[in-house]
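Need tokens for this chain, all 303 residues.
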Amino acid sequence: MTHDIDVLVLGGAGVDTIVHVPELPLPYADSYMVDSGIRARAGQTGDFVALGLSRLGLRTHHLDFLGDDPEGDLVRAMHRERGIALTAIPQPAGTKRAVNLVGPDGRRLSLYDTSRAHADDRFPEDTLRALAAVSRHAHVSITHPCSHALPVLREAGVTLSTDLHNWDGHNPYHEAFAYTADVVFLSAAALTDPPRTMRRIAERGRAQVVVATAGADGAYLLTDGEVTHVPTVTPPAPVVDSNGAGDAFAAAFLHGWLSGEPPHRCALFGAVAGAHACTVPSTETDAMGRDELVARAAAFETS
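Here are the structure tokens for all 303 residues:
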């Protein structure tokens, strides 16, 4: 079968409002003056993964719900300007939004508006099946529509990846994603024993590869039953915002994985792209190109 789409990205479209704060946690005060401005820009997890994949040369298609509102217009414009195919399902509740408080060291606190999605939201099955039928791979966000889509995607025969983000290893909501995907990403931030959780994902599910990112401490990679440490890569410029680093890691890792690279080199690609993402201001939307990624990975390997 001909695959017109390399990666179908499901979910994770929305708008973030960026607020730079003097420190995190932010002490209580009646008000704060924000000299750098308060800005809204398109770009949540699915948007960033789709952008990263597209910049790396993969034919990418993004499917999600969007409202007929200014936030939805921002998301549509971002995809149009970046040449990323988008299928937007009307969402009467409006486009997903979040507020990101960003500290001077680039760390962030995200406040998600959960009123703009519902547990019974579902992608139209005919649309989902048509897109899956011409896709090599699907990357699913951990939203309710994506949860309902998992059986259809598996039936279509596409390989799957997902990002569990800050899963604590216990919340049952994440299990369907963790145990259905072939490649699983998650943050180590909420895990007391990352290798143990990674092994459980592989043992109970079908994951060939599990990656737990650990920020400045690098990442952990589970493949062929062995957990190894992936060293951190020094960012090419000062760190200004960690938002989108995990999405950049996932996109670059998938680029390598879909190209047939060994898992350890895929993880290096992810580390390089994640480090680059930390140097991009939170008010901008940018990602590495393929030539730059390969060159920086090669330089790291020979250093």
